[in-house]
Each structure stands twice: as structure tokens, then as C-alpha cells.
Amino acid sequence: AMFKEVADIKTADELDLPVPEAEYHTVVCKPTGHQKALVKELSKRAEKIHNGSVDARIDNMLKVTSDGRKLGLDQRIINPALPDEPGTKVNQCVANVLHHWRDGESEKLTQLVFSDISTPTAGKGGFNIYDDIKTKLIAAGMPPDQIAFIHDADSDAKKKDLFAKVRSGQVRVLIGSTAKMGAGTNIQDRLIASHDLDAPWRPRDLTQRAGRIKRQGNRNEKVHIYRYVTESTFDSYLWQTLENKQKFISQVMTSRTPLRSCEDVDETALSFAEIKALCAGDPRIKERMELDVDVAKLRIMKADYQAKKFRLEDSVMKRFPAEIEQAEAIIAGIRADMETLEAHPHPEDGFAGMKIHGRNYLEKDKAGEALMDTVAAVTETEPVEIGSYRGFAISTKLTLLSDHSTTFKGAVSYTIDLGESATGNITRIDNALAKLPEHLKEYQARLADLHQQMESARAEAAKPFAMEAELQQKSARLVELDAALNLGGKAGGDAAA
Questions:
Q1: Which of 68, 283, 361, 491 is an S-S bond match for 367, by CB 3.0 to 4.6 Å?
Q2: pLDDT in tens, 354-368
Q3: Residue 372 contacts residue 363 (beta carbons within 8 Å)
């Protein structure tokens, strides 16, 4: 919140920029028989790592997680000899790309395909998803020059030329990774669909992907964002993790949230217990993930509540009593000054007189002139007493603006600005002092308001955390699930050993 305020950062919901409406599609694919078998094999590898029967340099949880991600995308990445089965998410993505390609032919509408896994660079000399998709699109009738890989644009000049072709509709399908096709890729003009083939590591990567198409300057009023998930694989688990964490982060990065902090995720390894539960299709894994996010949010809300409670208690104990004491002292002082003023009235049709540097001036115009001359001659920047008027001491000082501040002090001090007229200044002083009853009413109202604020703060501080019962219930269930799933610790240490 401080970052957004100090940096004058406006969130997307505050800016309300004219961007297209996005319709999200989750394409759920059934795992093939080979994928099911390979997931079980990953479970066996994880068990060996957990038991310490394999050297971490040969295999570790990070490698298992990486292979699990590849398997969720396409089984041929693990073993190119495995068959290309029709129901996989790569094939469903190709079908959706072709659908929008045909429907957008007249307007030359364009599409993006994101995959951080199996890039053409990583797959040189072997199978990769990029070439597989391109081959299938060409076989279905798409001209080769309408398909491009971001990885082929290996210089700024080539990227500039490629982006121009996408904006003009010469290139209709651009395939790339989040890193190469994220921030700075301004090709939104004709984009109608974006396809997320795999789950990136961080929620902000998903935001970058969606930001390529949900962007000001896109001529389409409605766009489509597809996310492809293979059931019963690491793929579905990682998408669920991203969804939960992104909900949390989105609450922080909008203007409507009461939350004040969040955490992002970086590349990590699943624990042995998570892999075992995932491979067994245990529904408690999803419940545990959702509870983890809920408990984190509730804890932050409780921390906010406790910080607010501390501030309120501090105000009740210190700030309000000090301000009340000050207001009461000022009220007593104004009353005393009102009595002083009444004790030094002007005589009927006369002038009460003013003393300047020990000399009494009984004529109004002479007193005003002496006051103005004396004030003008003062060069000290600290207050200097120069005389008295109707029971009030007069002091003045030279300010940084080469002006003079004139104060009339009784029990309370009153600063009065002088004008250019000698007699007018005496009238101005009398008018200011005549407003003491108004000042008294103002401070009496302030005193009453301070008492009311203190009572309200005391009542608010006494309120319990409204969601304490939910926090305790969900925390207890989370502990219970962790124990049942043996999630006592992550296996990141295995990967780093």
C-alpha cells in the first residue's frame, strides 16, 4: 500500500483503461494411458529419493517436478516414441487455433500460443511442441508464413519486424514463451485469442501472458484466453496452485483490498508427500491448497486487526488524553482572557490606550502609528515583547518572509496580522479580541468531539477479531491435513543436496 501511494501507482481497476472483455476457457483433457503410467513411475522415483536410495546428483525432487510438468504438456516430450493421441491438450489447442483462424480470416485476426516447456531451442535435434503445432497447422491449410516462433527473432531488429507483421495480420499465429513474449510485446491490435499450453511458475507470468491481449489498443471488443489442463498430472496441480496464489495477489494489487502483503512463488520442487497424494488422485491435496491460501489471508487480516487495535489502544491511553488536556487548558485560558478583556474596556467614545516600550499612547491614531513603527524596526527572529494593550502583552518577530508576526498574549496567545492603516490596525485588533467567545465555542466543540472519538476508539479496540473462529477452524484442518498427507516438510533440500 505504501509502495503504491509513494510511487503514485494506479492499479488496473483504478485506471479503468479501455481494454477488451476477456472470456476465459479452461480446456480439461483426460490423461492418456501412457501419461497415467508415467505419473506412477514419477511416484516411484520420488519414493526412492525420499528414502535416500538414489544420489541427488542423479535424481532429485526438482527433476521429478520438471519431468512431471513436461508429462502434463505432452507424453512425447518424455519419450518421442510414444504415440500422438487425439485427446491431448496440444491437439485440442491446435483445433481451437484453427477455429479462430478461419473465423478471423476476413479481418486477419491473430493469436498467441504460450509454452515455456519444449521450446524449439530446447528441442533442437529432437521433438518439441512448437514444431509439432506448426506442422499440424500447416497440414490443416494454414500458410507457413502466417506462423512464427518468437525464438526465431533473435535480434531487436528481427523482433521489431516480426511484431509489425503480427500487428498487420501478416503473421496470424505467434508461438513463444513467457520470458520472450511477455512485457514489451506490443502486438495487441488484432489479437482475438491467447492459448496457455502450460502453467508458468509465477502468477505474475500469467498476468504478463494475459496482458498481451487484454491491452489498450486491441480493436476487438471481446477476446478469448484458453488454458489447457491435463487431469491427474502435475499439470492440474500446478494450475491450481497458480490460481490460488493469483487470487491472493490480486486482492493485494487492487484498490479495494484490506490486505497489505502477499507472497509470490518461484521455481520450486514438490514434496514427496505431495507427489504421492497427487499420483493417487487424493482430493485432499486440492482442499489443502485452498486452505493454505485461506489461512494465509486470514492471518494477514488478523495482523491488520491487531495493528489497528494497538493504534486505537495507544490513542485511548496517550493521544486523546493529551489532546483533551490541551483543549481544556485552552478553554480555561480563553475564559480567563475574556475576563481580562472585560476588565480593560474602552471608555465610552474613547480609547483604552496602548503602551509601547513603556510609553502610554492615549490617542488611537498615535498608538497605531507607534505600533507600526516599532514592529517594522524589529530584526529579531525570536519573539520580542514591545508593549501591552487592554491587559494583553504585545510581542513581535521578524519572519523568514521579512514580514512581522504580531502576537497578543494573555493566558492564550493570539496572532493578529497588521495592515497599512494605523487606526485600522487598532480596530482590527479589537475585532480579533472580540471573537474570543467564538474561539471558546470552537474549542468546546472540539473537546466534545475528542471525548466522543476516545469512546469510539475504546469501543472499537474492545471488539474481537471477527473471523477468529474461521481462522482457528481452518488452521486446525490444515494441520490435520498436513499430518494425514505427511506434509511435514518440503523436499527442496533433496533437490539442492
A1: 361
A2: 999 999 999 999 999
A3: no
